[in-house]
Design goal:
Layout: H1 2-25, H2 30-59, H3 61-86, H4 91-123, H5 129-158, H6 160-180, H7 182-189, H8 192-195, H9 198-202, H10 210-219
Helix pairs in contact: 1-2, 1-5, 1-6, 2-3, 2-4, 3-4, 3-6, 5-6
Length: 220
Amino acid sequence: MLTMVVDFALFPVFALVIPVLIADHYPGQTWVLSIVESAFAVGMILGSAVLARKSNASLGRRRTVLGGFAALGAGFVGTGLVFSATGPGMPVAFTAGGSVLLMLSGAGLCMVTINTGTVRLLATPSAYRNRMVAAASLLSGLVMPLGSISSGLISRASGERWALLILGGAICACAAIAARDKAITRFLDMPDEQLDDAYLREFPHAFDAPATRMEKAAQA
């Protein structure tokens, strides 16, 4: 569900909100879009190659994920605030500030996805991993168009700045929710060697398929 919220907010930011903001307020200056979106990609590279590993080693997986949620959302909120502070007449200032903040968002995204993906794969029984990954992908794909519609309505009613603030705030709320969820924090705190089939140990009935139950009944 937290992944769904991230995809709900992440997809429209780069597919709709930022391109429309730049087209409306910096017309003809497409270099602004190129730089800020490239900064997000650079943040993802840094997050996946360096920051996630170092943060896991020093802070642990749980704190890394919570910090990643916060960094991703704060980057979007900060980009909206930078636009409010610089205005449409200062493309260089917006590009400089927005690039730094979106780089932070990109790093935060990888800090979240690398760790949650690892936990999901290791903790799920091997016979169910394809279904687990497919279910997560399906649910995330379903919310993307909803995010685009919602962000479009917000942008039309209040402007792209508010769309960035609201979407970023929703992601920051994920950090608070994840920090208070005992199941999430317990699995994130487990070392890799203890994660193997951890979902099966914690929730055995969730993986007790009908066919398996029938076989057990027949054997009894």
